[in-house]
Task: inverse folding
């Protein structure tokens, strides 16, 4: 409480001396001097705060905690209500999630697009999965909670002593021997388990699913000190040969690839041209250019750190570490390429990829990019190819698509579908987590 300053009569301004004749004291520099009353102050401040100050004991602390908890609960409830309202507006809007199709001039591709109704309707994402973050969270939960599918492994030895494999979806045993085969090319650190729901849905529709496992993805130590972030076209030749040998009467052979797997599929199809083994391909969330400044440099920072940790655990650490230590002391030292320690100490995926050329079997970074960058052969693809990218993808970002949209121009065999939602390889729809 502020009390107004009221000077006594003998101290009033304008009187040079007080009543005793002594010179008057100088007038104060402020008109009013604040005088606080503890009693009135305690009445103004909430009892909880007064309790913290010691006026009402430990009970005030509990009151403060309760007050803050209620405020937080109210704020969270308001935020969730706003989230639900926004999600409902998006879900009920007919055009909120409608894909945009970039069709080439090719009559064949246009007819294929016209015959695929799912590409022309809006994505019906679940109410709570109307954002990239929520779809990614659902993806992570689904990977943990999805019931495992039965896969039967066919291991393949490579000429240099390495090991790759084909994981066949077990539930496809009842399909006829001429059923079409879908060859799946997995993500950066993927396994067959990542495609459990995909395999289940594809099998129900009459497709036989074969997940093509690259080096280091078999769940056991590497046979040789070599891995491939984006795969290897020569290894893919061995995969394709194994698929055709097991089911030579299959009517069609299709390729389905996600994320890093698309780099291998595109590179392979471009190198093969008209002799490509696949009858058609679907590429989901490709990163396009993988050279310096390209896809590996554009990951969202948090996801970049997560991917880097996964890559190191998959290819370098654990049971593989001794293999790489031996390689570093011999082959890497002889070829003067980055060692195991150099790779282990990297802090971004771009840096890891830049230093991994020796571990992938190349003499230089330039040679590595020349042999693996999918954009180096994309214009030579003659196989009908559908590419799907999401505008909210934090891994294979929209800028990747914008920078390489030229590969869908002209009378080519490639078509692009861009969706407003779907994040990275999710695209969940309906009331369940079905992509």
Result:
């Amino acid at each position: 409480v502020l009390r107004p300053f009221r000077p006594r009569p003998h101290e009033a301004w304008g009187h040079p001396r007080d009543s005793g004749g002594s010179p008057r004291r100088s007038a104060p520099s402020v008109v009013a001097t604040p005088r606080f009353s503890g009693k009135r102050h305690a009445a103004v401040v909430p009892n909880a705060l007064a309790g913290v100050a010691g006026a009402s004991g430990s009970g005030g602390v509990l009151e403060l905690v309760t007050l803050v908890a209620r405020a937080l609960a109210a704020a969270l409830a308001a935020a969730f209500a706003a989230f639900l309202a926004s999600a409902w507006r998006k879900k009920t809007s007919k055009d909120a999630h409608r894909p945009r199709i970039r069709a080439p001039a090719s009559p064949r591709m246009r007819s294929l697009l016209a015959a695929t109704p799912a590409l022309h309707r809006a994505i019906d994402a679940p109410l709570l999965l109307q954002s990239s973050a929520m779809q990614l969270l659902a993806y992570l939960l689904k990977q943990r909670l999805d019931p495992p599918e039965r896969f039967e492994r066919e291991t393949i030895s490579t000429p240099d002593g390495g090991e790759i494999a084909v994981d066949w979806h077990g539930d496809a045993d009842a399909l006829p021997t001429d059923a079409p085969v879908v060859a799946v090319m997995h993500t950066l650190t993927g396994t067959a388990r990542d495609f459990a729901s995909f395999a289940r849905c594809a099998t129900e529709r009459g497709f036989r699913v074969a997940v093509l496992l690259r080096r280091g993805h078999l769940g056991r130590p590497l046979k040789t000190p070599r891995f491939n972030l984006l795969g290897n076209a020569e290894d893919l030749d061995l995969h394709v040969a194994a698929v055709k040998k097991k089911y030579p009467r299959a009517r069609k052979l299709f390729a389905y690839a996600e994320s890093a797997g698309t780099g291998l599929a595109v590179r392979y199809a471009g190198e093969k041209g008209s002799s490509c083994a696949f009858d058609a391909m679907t590429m989901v969330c490709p990163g396009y250019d993988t050279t310096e400044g390209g896809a590996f440099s554009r990951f969202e920072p948090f996801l970049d750190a997560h991917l880097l940790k996964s890559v190191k655990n998959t290819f370098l650490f654990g049971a593989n570490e001794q293999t790489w230590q031996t390689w570093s002391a011999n082959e890497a030292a002889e070829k003067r390429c980055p060692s195991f320690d150099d790779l282990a100490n990297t802090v971004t995926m771009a840096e890891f990829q830049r230093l991994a050329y020796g571990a992938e079997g190349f003499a230089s970074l330039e040679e590595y990019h020349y042999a693996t960058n999918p954009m180096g052969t994309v214009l030579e693809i003659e196989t009908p190819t559908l590419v799907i990218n999401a505008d909210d993808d934090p891994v294979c970002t929209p800028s990747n698509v914008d920078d390489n949209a030229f590969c869908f121009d002209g009378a080519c065999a490639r078509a692009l579908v861009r969706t407003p939602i779907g994040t990275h390889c999710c695209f969940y729809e309906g009331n369940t987590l079905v992509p």
